[in-house]
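Q: For a teaching session next week I want to show students how multiple molecules come together into a single three-dimensional assembly. I've collected the sequence lines for a complex. Could you give me the predicted structure tokens for the whole thing so I can convert them for display?
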Amino acid sequence: MTALRPYRALLARDLKLAFRRRADLLLPLGFATLVVLLFGIALGGTPERLAPVSAPVIWVTVLLAGFLSLDGLFRPDVEDGTLDGWLGGATSMVGLMYAKAIAHWLLYGLGLTLSTPLLAMLLNLPVDLLPVMLAALAIGTLGATQIGLVAAALTARLRRSGILLALIVMPLYLPLLIFGSGAVDAVRLGESPKGALLLLAAQTVLLCTLAPPAAAAGLRIGSDNPP
Amino acid sequence: MNPVLRWFHQLGSPPYFYRFAGRWMPWFGWSALLLGALGLYLGMVRAPADYLQGDSFRIIYIHVPCAWMSLFVYVVLAVNGTIALIWRIKLSELLLLACAPVGAMFTAITLITGMLWGKPTWGAYWVWDARLTSELVLLFLYFGVIGLASAYDDVRQGARAAAVLALVGVVNVPIIHFSVKWWNTLHQGETVRIFGQSSIDASMVWPLLVMALATKLYFAFAVLLRTRGLLLEQERAKQWARDAVTGAT
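A: Of course. Below is the structure for the complete assembly, covering every listed component.
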């Protein structure tokens, strides 16, 4: 599998870099916990009021926390010239985008998904909803990562991206949120979550197909080899 | 060369397009104004009042044509984005930039008139209706395109980035629309719908079609006007642009 070596190397590099800065890695989780804390306090903290809204609150919190990491997705590579190396090199940009997306999802998507039991506990999420919540989040965050990949690629060369990144990413998150939170709702109402989960997975597959080439095209803008 | 194809190639040249747009703009502008006035007169004065909603239904003569335009302009924008990305035609980049504010305006008008109509009819300015919600998302897609394009210092780079985003958006518009519909029906069943597709009377349709044509013509006028401005700004170092500004042709 030598053909995959550059992509594996990039994946390993991104993971290694992230683990060298463990504090940065834990920041999204800290942010998510804080948002949940604010919601818990604003809602009065009683289980009767928290339980019905806990699933949507967790969804929004996870999407927001994952969003915070997007600005740093390509910026360091643009600043230290790594990106120009990729663009000038013979390795497929689309393949590199896949490596980037997988690293980001492992670090933030999966990381946040695995920490949802903690958030669920704080919000009194009914325990029987937890498995479907975890499944929906694991699938949905991969889709969210792909959307973020494109948005981060398009804003990587700007001096500041902040609110613009939010403006680009949030409307595109909407279908993921609808089906992700719809799957949890279905279980709550005693129905099968299969339909919603499958539609969520279908969207994620579509995003995984289309987003990396779009991100590669986005990164070429403003370089010496425009798309 | 095929004359149609040659005309198309000529249109891609900035000075040619500038003159072409200058020639056609008044026609589009004036016909939009006349047809718009006619459509509003027919719709506001001549069309009969609705048996259920009284006069409040008349807002559809603004609301519906603008809603049609809001989607139509996004498609035009995305088509220009595709042309800009594949063939790198500079003019398409500018057309994309010119489309975005016009489309955002149509979307905003659709939302505002929809909310004004919703108050007497549904009893609330905003309901989480599938169409209203997807229209709101469309507005944010327009804002994203405008924001991204203006964040770049280089106009061409900004237009390219906006083109990629527009393509991502055009793939997502149907997904957003159908997912919102699914979400809406899951929660509250069929939305109150007073208009069926065929339940509208012919005397009420005519003003609507006139208004639809007027908004199309206005769109053509506004895009040509904006593109002319953008062309002059982009090509300000060129001789033809100086001649066009000083009037020495």
